[in-house]
Amino acid sequence: MAGCCAPGEPTCACGTKDILLLACSGGSNVGQIANDAAKALDGYGQGSMYCAIGVGAQLPGFVKDVQRKPCVAIDGCGTGCVLKTLENVGVKPAVHVVVTELGIKKHGAFDHTNDDIAKVVGAVVDALAVGQT
Asked: Distance (Å, rounded) from C-alpha 39 to C-alpha 133?
């Protein structure tokens, strides 16, 4: 299904592979949900998953890429590590989604559902669609 939305989706940001998807992958369920959502978005052609750690380490090639292309930051919780990583290199993401702000409670285990991932994917797709109007 790479390249566009799932069948039946009313709106999507089709053809947005130039968007970089940077996700939390922290040690909790919401970090893993953020990471899984970014992988799903990449798989649906809604952007390209990108290395937030490379940006955080301020490796020149990674920093240059996020400064040249629109970015989506998907944070697991309000600590906002991905957002802060981008801000530290002078980048404001086009979209910032926080998993816990979508009603998903943070806990220390890694278990989560496909519905959790879908909620985050939907929030990103909706925000990208708004940005294209």
From this structure: 25
Provide the residue ranges of all domains of the chain, joining segments of one domain with +.
Answer: 20-131
4-8 contacts, C-beta under 8 A, 24 or more apart: 4/44, 4/45, 5/44, 5/125, 6/44
**pTM of structure:** 0.86
- pLDDT tens for 25-74 read 999 999 999 999 999 999 999 999 999 999 999 999 999 999 999 999 99
CATH number (3.30.230, 3.30.420, 3.40.50, 1.10.1330) of 20-131 reads: 3.40.50
Contacts of residue 102, Cβ cutoff 8 Å, sequence gap at least 6: 119, 120, 123
Q: Measured at the alpha carbon of residue 36, what is the angle toward residues 103 and 57, in degrees to the nearest 5?
A: 105
